[in-house]
From TrEMBL:
UniProt GO molecular function: cobalamin binding; metal ion binding; methylaspartate mutase activity
Lineage: superkingdom: Archaea
Catalyses which reaction(s): (2S,3S)-3-methyl-L-aspartate = L-glutamate
Gene assigned in the entry: glmS
Native source species: Salinadaptatus halalkaliphilus
Protein name per its UniProtKB record: Glutamate mutase sigma subunit
Cited NCBIfam families: MthylAspMutase, PRK02261.1
Coiled-coil stretches noted in the UniProt entry, renumbered to this chain: none
């Protein structure tokens, strides 16, 4: 089924005790500008708060941010919590996911093993995540969103 961006809801937040707010503010603006309905849960969001919001808003995607180096601990059991609430959404995580982040392949594998569909580092351009989500949700641009080619 091909979906329209306008009907897609993204739940976004910073997990755990992390208080870094700038990244998700930029992501909120970028996803909103791309036509998604964005529910920004803000900083210091618990696993349960993500799950509750995903259920309440019937989210198509859950986007988790973490900057302070404790993402792996904060995300233990996260997908079990989502599943127990019946959340069936694409899940991404991004930010500074490990202390130092010196072995990115290992970091990515760690978070994929925790259940995330995609893992993004702190150099990620929001447009990259938007393009990935459009692909994962099988969203095609509407007539008005398509670039116009002038003759
Ligand atoms: C500003 C800042 C702070 C401010 C935060 C103010 C605020 N309310 O936001 C203050 C001073 C409070 C702070 C505190 C701390 N900080 Co600080 N902080 C920074 C700093 C300098 C900039 C972060 C920032 O705003 N970047 C700008 C935004 C636009 O970029 P971003 O956050 O990376 O987000 C982008 C990408 O990461 C990506 N992204 C992020 N999340 C997601 C999610 C998805 C799904 C996707 C697709 C993409 C994505 O897209 C975003 C937009 O482009 C960074 C260093 C740095 N240069 O990154 C350290 C840094 C993040 N902090 C760090 C640390 C250690 C701390 C503290 C633990 C320090 C301490 N001992 O107290 C505390 C933690 C407090 C807490 N409870 O969170 C470390 C983390 C180390 C690690 N992970 O390995 C860093 C990397 C500094 C360092 N080099 O050591 N910090």
């Amino acid at each position: 089924m091909v979906l329209n961006t306008m009907s897609q809801t993204v739940v976004l937040g910073v997990i755990g005790s992390d208080a870094h707010v700038v990244g998700i503010t930029i992501l909120e603006q970028a996803f909103s500008a791309a036509g998604f309905d964005v529910v920004n849960l803000g900083v210091q969001t618990s696993q349960e708060e993500f799950a509750e919001a995903a259920v309440a808003h019937d989210a198509n995607a859950v986007l988790v941010s973490s900057l302070y180096g404790h993402a792996e601990q904060d995300c233990q059991g996260f997908h079990d919590v989502l599943e127990s609430r019946g959340v069936d959404a694409v899940s991404y995580i991004g930010g500074n996911l490990a202390v130092g982040q010196d072995d990115w392949d290992r970091t990515r594998e760690t978070f994929e093993a925790l259940g995330f569909d995609r893992v993004f580092d702190s150099e990620t351009d929001p447009e990259e995540a938007i393009a990935a989500l459009r692909t994962d949700l099988d969203i095609r641009p509407t007539e008005s969103e398509r670039p116009r080619i002038s003759s």
